[in-house]
Specification:
nine-stranded mixed β-sheet, alpha/beta, 19 strands, 10 helices, elongated
Amino acid sequence: MAFDHAVVVGAGIGGLLSAAALAPRFERVTILERDALPVDATHRRGVPQGEQMHVLLAIGQDAFEELLPGIGAAWADAGAAWFDSTRDVASFSSQGWTARGPSEAWTYGIRRLVLERIVRDRIRAIPTVTIAQGTVTGLRASRDGSRVTGVELRGEEAIEADLVVDASGRTSHAAEWITALGFEPPAEHEIVSDIVYSTAVVRLSADALRPDIRGVLAPPTPINPRGAVLLPCGDGLHQIVTVAQNASRAPADRDEFLAELDRAPTPVVADAARRAEFVDDPKPFKIRGTRRTRWEDMASRPDGFVAVGDSVLALNPIYGQGMSVAAVEALRMRDLVASADAGDPTSLARRIQESFRSTLDFVFD
């Protein structure tokens, strides 16, 4: 027996993977996205960090592959680089260069815009999933308020649903929606780090790196709050990132970008950047830090509502864990929904939310 209808708010990575998780047990899954989604791999306003460097951890890649079999091959077909992050990336720490060696930590080097476009195309191909443009303004609830029954839309009729998943990201209004239903909002914990960073896509010169090195990682240290990262991102291109803690702004033009790279703990990335062909101008971004919204700790909450991805844990992007956490959450959601009784969905949403706890504790604490 299948559930009838699920609504997912947001068509970012968390929302797309949630739809993949729910589609096997729901007759219909509707993803509501306020942006007009591009057909190709272009930037959109709802993902302000979309042009920045993104990394998938091994556990995240495995979760993506379970949810969307063959997705790694699709990324490779789109030109993604495939490399051993421990062997092929030279890492510079406060103690100097670290040892490198073969590992199982292989990863795809691919731009977020390309990765998301491929995932979005795969989700669009699922017959029971619809992606529609619309702005959610609140939740609908049963008469006694104990269960979420759908979503309210700006300028359109409300949509009924058996399950509502909020994947609207860092700017989520879900806590306000829940409060409007008469519940105490979830507690929030924040780690402020005041990180600014800027990403540029470049084509390296042939001699920019040693033949056995495909990337360089030189993060900020307690001694030097500046850092630099260089990693392959597919189609023979690389992304270079400047990172700074407690800085007022990130570099927005090439000269500022190169000057900031000069302040990193090692000159290797700056030297490579000066000999590189810049495909586009650096894209600056500032993030306050990491924010965890403790949905799983609510003493009283309505049935039929789940928050995922950045709506639950908005990570400092420098750690490269956000997409991987969303993928693991979606996988746990899929497994719980697969074993649920469609005739009695009571507490399903709570069990899904609770299943995220161990992952969130590990990443946040």
